[in-house]
Amino acid sequence: MKRWLGKAETALGNHSDRLNAINIFPVADGDTGTNLYVTVRAASRAVSADGDQPAQMDVGAVLATAGQAAMEEARGNSGTLLSVFLTAAAEPLAGHTRLTSTLLAAALNRAQIRAWSALSDPVPGTMLSVMEAAARAAAAVDAGQNGDDSNHALGLALDAAVEAALAAVIHTEDQLAALTSAHVVDAGGVGMLLILDCLRSAILGEELQSELLDGLHGYDVSDPHIHTAMPDDDGVEVMCTISLSPLNAATLRQRLDEIGESVIMSQVGSGPDSGGNYRWRVHVHVPEGEPAVEIIRSLGEPANISISELALPRDPAADAVNSSGHER
Question: What predicted TM-score, i.e. pTM, was given to this entire model?
Answer without folding.
Answer: 0.82
